[in-house]
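pasting for ref
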Amino acid sequence: MTESDVIRILHRHCTEQKLKFFAHVYRGTKGYILDGFAMSQAYRNMRTIGYEVKVSRNDFLQDKKWQNYLPVCNTFYFVSPPEVIRKDDLPAGIGLYHVVDNRLVCVKKAKRNEFDKDAVFEVLQYIVLSRGLSERMKVKSAVSHMHFAQNRANDLERRLRNTQRRCNEVENELWEIKRKVKEATNGR
């Protein structure tokens, strides 16, 4: 099993969990590459998950940089074939998924922590600047926003006409009341 195989399985897993997944993400200018970064698609209570893929035990034992990813993650998981990492190899709070039959199996649940907003901003900035929307998607997005703005303007214009019509009706009612009051007071 290769790292690419695991990344594909991880991508499918995150998609099933309704998470936005990005492979091989830099943590800003620090030069650290996180194998997988996923985030919930929410403005409030955003959840971020970091994944470090290991396909050999030696790679796992030699890796000293994975702790640099913790500030960008609410939860952090190693992902490996079963023979590479054991649950008791990991410190408290760090999670573990094993790849079994092309699926992820949670061996150890990660503890949820708060992420560092500045560190997450670095990751998101990298994603936007290096993997931003294609020109076609930018145009499609701009057209969509333009249609939304035009529909909103049309709605506001319709509401304004209705308000003006109602004001004219109220003004006419007021003149009618004044006329009737004047007639009533003149007729005395």
